[in-house]
Write a structure and sequence with these properties.
The chain has seven helices and twelve strands. With about 260 residues, the chain is of the alpha/beta class. Strands 1, 4, 5, 6, 7, 10, 11 and 12 form an eight-stranded mixed β-sheet that branches. The longest helix is centred in the last third of the chain and has 17 residues. Bound molecules: cytidine-5'-triphosphate and magnesium ion. Cytidine-5'-triphosphate binds next to helix 3.
Amino acid sequence: MYDETRPHRTAAVIPAAGRGTRLGPGAPKALRSLGGIPMLIHAVRAMARSRAVSLVVVVAPPDGAAEVKNLLDEHALPGGAAGGSWGRTDFLVVPGGETRQQSVRAGLDALPDGITSVLIHDAARPLVPVDTVDAVVEAVRAGAPAVVPAMPLADTVKEVEPGEPGEPEPVVATPERARLRAVQTPQGFDLATLVRAHERIAVNGEGATDDAGMVEKLGVPVVLVPGHEEAFKVTRPLDLILADAVLARRRATDVY
Ligand code: CTP
Ligand code: MG
């Protein structure tokens, strides 16, 4: 468990409180199994693998905090410093909220004094490579207030006037694809800047789906660094098949 006397600088907050509606019926998405291990555990390990991350705050489904604590204990690295620890990385579990924005806020509120920068990482991106995590941390520590891993798009994107489901939708515009990026997580922030964004920007509807977008609204510059194709978000059933295939390939080639 978290030791107040240990110095921490960069923490990771993992919002994991969503239902996973688009994945179909079943357990909350973060608790679904990937290669025999809950998706959330993969995501925590992905953060803990970075030497820069000394604390991971998991934001659990509102009624699932105790279950998530048990999962973290169960999957702790054997022989860690405190018997049930994750080596150098401590963890906390807090209950989440109705929207992703509220869940991230709950995670930020749980951070102890002494943290200066924070990564926000979707539990639904369990396979992000450590090099991507480190690249984000490095850019934040070099002075960027907000850093986002991003990828060029494969598909051309249309802006539409949304219509009734199943009805044809009128196209409003076609943004130039070369100028568009799909953003991933972990997104890295100067902690004070992200906290300020959360204090100033109210939750509307589903809340912000992108943390950097909130910082942009403050007028603070946001920069992109290269993301990774394996940092894709598990959203729909086909994504589970892809994630299993990536894991199987890693196990076969023993990269991790
Ligand atoms: N999330 C959260 N709290 C919420 C909603 C979402 O912590 N109230 C988290 C999810 O657990 C996920 C991340 O935010 O790790 C990204 O959200 P998304 O992929 O949309 O996951 P879900 O909201 O669970 O999925 P869906 O939208 O299909 O229900
Ligand atoms: Mg969602």
